[in-house]
Amino acid sequence: MTNALIVIDVQNDFCPDGALAVTGGDAIVAGINAAMADFGAVVLTQDWHPADHSSFADNHHGAVPFSVVEMPYGAQVLWPRHCVQGTQGAAFHADLNSDRADMVIRKGFRAGIDSYSAFFENDQKTPTGLEGYLRSRGVTDLVLAGLATDFCVAFSALDAARLGFGVSVRMDLCRAIDLEGSLAVMVEKMRAAGVVLA
Predict the structure, then answer these.
(1) Contact yes or no for 115/122 (Cβ under 8 A)
(2) Which candidate in 9, 13, 47, 159 is catalytic?
């Protein structure tokens, strides 16, 4: 086995009617389920925030969602409250074949730092443990799908490429937030890093 499918954050809060809904977020679920059969390993990631998480706008007096603040690790978008641990919003979409997952990586569970990437928190230093798991399974090539293209998918793809994995992103099985042109910016960054956009 050399390949793995990494399914990023297909959770209720990122789907229609969720707290941080991505347009069409639920439309990719059937395609992701179908793709799982083609891979030796499937990993799901799950945003898993405590209620006092520093990335939530309502935890900053007077802040509005989607504004940007400086954190010790750099710029941080302040998000609407989403994917709070143990809530229905943090659960995987009901139609996602989560039973197929060999591993679930929970990220963003430290209150003081956000984690877009499946590999590192936003300080680019604190690992999630995913790299070690994939190396121990003999995985060399990754295909990414999920939500959202321009944030957690892109950051995961860039980190995977930096770590030396072969990386492709199934753009048809992703959906974007596109916050002030963020999709075009991250697509260019992925291409420049050698990520294949399929």
Answers:
(1) yes
(2) 9
The one-letter code for the residue type at 161 is A
N-to-C CA span, the chain: 21
* Active-site option among 13, 47, 83, 152: 152
Identify whether 107 is a catalytic site residue.
yes
Largest Cα–Cα distance of the chain, in whole Å? 50
Question: Measuring CA to CA, which residue among 13, 12, 35 is closest to residue 94?
Answer: 12
Mean pLDDT split into 10-residue runs, the chain, 198 residues: 94 97 97 97 98 96 95 94 98 98 97 96 95 97 98 98 98 95 97 97
Pairing of strands 103-107, 141-147: unpaired
What is the per-residue pLDDT for 130? Answer: 98
Computed from CA positions of residues 118, 119, 125, 127, in that sequence, does the dihedral angle turn out positive or negative? positive
User: 152 an active-site residue?
Assistant: yes
What's the pTM?
A: 0.96
pLDDT at 1: 65
Among 15, 26, 83, 107, the one annotated catalytic: 107
Is the separation of the CB atoms in 102 and 138 below 8 Å? no
Cα 129 from chain centroid (whole Å): 15
